[in-house]
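Q: Fold this one first, please.
A: Sequence and structure below.
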Amino acid sequence: MTRVWDEFAASVFDVVAPQTLLLLGLLAAGITGALWYWFPAWVPRRLPRWRLPRLRWPRWRLPKWRRTRRPKAKPARKSKAGPAFAPTVVLPDGTLLADRLAAEGRYAEAIRQRLRDVVGDLTAAGVIAPLPGTTAAEVAAEAAVQRPAVAGSLAGATDLFSEIWYGDRPAQADHDARMRALTGDVRSRMRGVPS
């Protein structure tokens, strides 16, 4: 085979000089690369292929008891209820957090906690489903639609909360007592009204 190749190369080099042959090879490679790069999309890239039937080899499988298949993770369902509010916060010693705050003289925080407790109770009862960013007035309006009996007391509680917390009014003990009465009235009306 090498003798045949040597004779062929010698006959080619007798006709064409080696430098010219190298230049022609580089030119052919450049043209081929340019055509490959800027090939028009409407010209087929390949010749049609004739497909031979494919031979399939048997696949070795483990017995069923040895095969381990991981269960697919189910996507978490989004609940429309929003975040879960805890009902009235009771401390480990049995006292309410709002009462502890009021006893410490932190009346504004006690008023806020009392409103949070009522919102938590309304959420736990299924009356409202507050979402993040919901204002106290929106919670009161939604609860008034669901349970009209609590509308007056809850509106009074949210007005007092907004006046003190957002209105920068200093909170006093009588404000806390009024909030305690309003939230107690909301809870008693919640118990009295059937679902």
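Q: Good. Now the second chain.
A: Here it is, same layout.
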Amino acid sequence: MSYYKRHVFFCTNLREDGSACCQRFNAQALRDYAKKRSKELGIAGKGKIRVNSAGCLDRCSEGPVLVVYPEGVWYSYIDQSDIDEIIDEHLVNGRVVERLKI
């Protein structure tokens, strides 16, 4: 068994040259929110869920993005309600959120 049931990586890269990047869409704050909410729900930790920051995931034109492993499901999101839906549906109930999948 893997150390975590699911591992969530949020691209939080900031491109200094002004080109498209996830951090321009508040990625760090939404990653922080996801981490906090997963702890509040009791789904964070060994054998459960881990939320992490990642450098550039190279899908800048589709950003902001996150990826959930081991499924390898990629999502784009806009706000906290999208993050809530990913947490509630995918991380808690194991159902892919098709409308946010890229």
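Q: Anything worth noting on the second one?
A: Helices lie at 27-40, 80-92.
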